[in-house]
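Journal club prep — side note

Before the paper discussion, L.F. wants everyone to see what a predicted structure for a comparable chain looks like in token form. Sequence:
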Amino acid sequence: MAIKVRAKHKFCRRVGECIWDDPKCPSVKRPYKAGPHGKTGRRGKLSTYGELLLEKQKLRFHYAISEKQLRIAYAKAKQGHGQAFEKLFRTLELRLDAVVFRSGLAPSIFAAKQAVNHGHILVDGKKVDRNSYRVKAGQVVALNTAKSESLTDLAKNSNKTIPAYLEVDRDACKCTVVREPEVEEIPVKANIMSVIEYYAR
């Protein structure tokens, strides 16, 4: 796993909000930096580089991927026709772990990664255990309900808001990628253009 679970909300405290919109995140009750002076201390003004770096880190932490994985995704997004920022966003959003998380088949991106790694996820009826697998429009992602009763219960009772590019059957614990997402539909609290600018330096 690219980001340690024990530190997953440490970054949220730093930026003052949960990057996954988790109501249980410590930043909901304490939207200030950790430490004895966090509540009264001011957030220092970032340099231009600092602002770009922060947006890049938001994107990386949101998808819980490594710096190397994000750099590879950016390098591929620059190739061929089309806008690099759109291709990068769609590449990350259509990763199998991201689709599992976004559809509510897993309660968090970390749980989604674990479910994929442990073989609990099926794509068009076949087991896929690679988080970076890119899901295509029309493919069906489903939870293997016979393998995990606890995950099945969480998926069936999820109240997660589903984006328009996914169609979810909560009772059957499956979702269909209806189409590729538009950039403005992707619920990520990061400025993708700043990320592109960071890597283009």
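L.F.'s comment for the group: The mean pLDDT is 88. Keep this in mind when we get to the figures.
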